[in-house]
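Section handout 9: paired folding examples.
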Amino acid sequence: MMTKYILNSGGIKREPRLKKLYHQEIVQGLGNAPKFLLCNFAQGREYWDTKFLGYCEAIREDMPEGVTASFELAVPATFAEQCKRADVIYVHGGDDHLLRYWMSRFDVPELFTGKVVAGNSAGSDLLVKHHWSNDWRECGDGLGILPIKFIPHFESATDPADQRGPADWQAGYAELAAYGDTSLPIYALHEGEFAVFIDDTEQKLVLRKAVQ
């Protein structure tokens, strides 16, 4: 049983070409009616429903000709059953700690087996061994499903309202390189970029492509 993981750096709305490539990569080989489970656990509950509508539209507009996707909003109470029904589990970005809070309740690797799993920013952080977050400006641990280190939004502009001033991306990269398992490769992706990993039936995880 093959599981496909697609790590996106985030910021795809600012990169329309990469956004379209990313969404089309997600549904490649899934037929003309792929079923999406959109997981907004990294965001406050009050935003889930509104964000869901916007995410549905953003994905729908990028679908290849003849492909009509359907969408379901993930909720913790039924998440395990929802994963069984889905072809695609799409974990959106937000806060790493909030996402881990919800996901700690589930056997995530089991739920994701045999699915296309798309991560965006914090959603990608969840899947890797270690990451560096620009929001927190510190290293953290993901679930370790993918044996790599990850930096989302690499070298992106800092929000002028951020009281800490501009992020030092090179310092963050160096900090992550020295953190945890130092043998692991670092994927520092600029906004919109994504990497595709395939886990086949022999449990051999391979990088299939990186799109910039």
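Moving on to protein 2 of 2.
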Amino acid sequence: MPTLKPGDQAPAFTLPEVKGDLEPVMRERLGALFGSQRLAVLSSHRDGQPYSNLVAFAATPDLRGLVFATTRATRKFENLTVDPRVSMLIDNRSNQVSDFREAIAVTAVGRVKELSGNQKSRILELYLGKHPYLKEFVESPTCALLQLEVNTYILVERFQKVLEWHLKPARQ
């Protein structure tokens, strides 16, 4: 790949068309990425000011939910209470030059809700399966178990190849 000098324009790049159904491609890539990563960047906002945090996450098997925990006394929880719309970034970067060719990043967009009752018990088991070292933290009465209900995933590979997957509403 040629090196660009100041003032040079990057060569045009045409994204390849995805043939057929996008869902199996996204399920494969997201499943592999989510299985290999423990942390995500959660972005919330309040009064027009963005706010980002590292969170330990787990994905539900159907990929419709991304689960994380926080104490209720945090700015993060307060922001989510005021406006549950968030994004979450999960990537596999290694902070090496090779990331420009090999890194994958996905942004999940949706709304967060606090889990309770039977749903919380089920999802807590999933979450602790991935993060057993957080058991005491998550089971504390001051901790909230939250789920980002994903509407859209935006997957970026090689900093240029972008796939966007809009999830169909779940059957009730």
